[in-house]
């Protein structure tokens, strides 16, 4: 997989960026997620929410978003409901130009995630297999942010209200998202969301003790 570096030359041209439902794994360890650098000025705001990031690989992890050193414009990043198989979701000590807020992120090492069946070798990497996952029902409800996104782009707002399609593609000509890899699940309207790119739901069970009657 590739790294997720956004807006690398947007310093001095502030923008608001929303990043959600991504699954990223098997990278070189360290600074896999990076917003805006290489220019002076301000980058704006970057919202990372409900992503599943393995920042590194099974033999070595690092922080997802790390300090970038020089040439870092002013930027504000907001991390919510991200599942980080990493040493940290965010580690930007020493970058005074970067401010960040973390809410209901989950950080695990490879061993802790594997105990819960959260592995990259699953059919859909790091997808929870049951309701006992530490990602299930532990996140913040992000419907209000989805409404903001919908006011900017309806298709993106609708995608925000669901979980990952795992193998998604974005059409830049008509601004539509197609996700052929996995049937998506709706996020709750009012209840807590799951942490990470996936939303675990229990399939409805058939009723017990159903009896049939014959009407002549």
Please explain how this structure is put together.
This protein has 216 residues and is mainly beta. It has one domain (4-178). 11% of the residues lie in helices and 29% in strands. It has helices at residues 110-115, 143-152, 154-160, and strands spanning 4-6, 15-20, 23-24, 33-35, 42-49, 52-54, 56-57, 60-61, 63-66, 74-80, 83-85, 88-91, 98-103, 106-108, 169-171, 176-178. The mean pLDDT is 85.
Q: How is this structure best summarized?
A:
The protein has helices spanning 110-115, 143-152, 154-160, and strands at 4-6, 15-20, 23-24, 33-35, 42-49, 52-54, 56-57, 60-61, 63-66, 74-80, 83-85, 88-91, 98-103, 106-108, 169-171, 176-178. The chain has a 4-stranded parallel sheet with strand order 2-5-10-13, with no helix packed on it. The protein has a 4-stranded parallel sheet with strand order 3-6-11-14. Strands 1-4 form a two-stranded parallel sheet.
């Amino acid at each position: 997989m590739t790294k997720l570096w956004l807006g690398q030359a947007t310093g001095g041209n502030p923008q608001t960026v929303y990043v959600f439902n991504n699954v990223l794994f098997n990278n070189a360890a360290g600074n896999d997620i990076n917003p805006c650098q290489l220019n002076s000025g301000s980058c704006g705001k970057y919202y990372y929410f409900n992503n599943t990031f393995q920042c590194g690989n099974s033999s070595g992890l690092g922080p997802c978003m790390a300090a970038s050193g020089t040439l870092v414009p002013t930027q504000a990043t907001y991390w919510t409901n991200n599942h980080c198989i990493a040493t940290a979701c965010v580690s930007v000590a020493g970058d005074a130009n970067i401010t960040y807020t973390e809410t209901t992120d989950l950080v695990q090492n490879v061993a802790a995630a594997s105990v819960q069946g959260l592995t990259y070798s699953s059919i859909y990497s790091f997808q929870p297999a049951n309701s006992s996952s530490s990602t299930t029902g532990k996140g913040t409800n992000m419907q209000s942010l989805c409404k903001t996104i919908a006011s900017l782009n309806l298709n993106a707002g609708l995608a925000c209200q669901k979980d990952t399609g795992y193998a998604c593609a974005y059409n830049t000509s008509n601004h539509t998202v197609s996700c052929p890899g996995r049937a998506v699940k709706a996020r709750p309207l009012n209840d807590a969301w799951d942490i990470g790119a996936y939303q675990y739901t229990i399939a409805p069970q058939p009723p017990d003790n159903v009896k049939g009657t014959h009407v002549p």
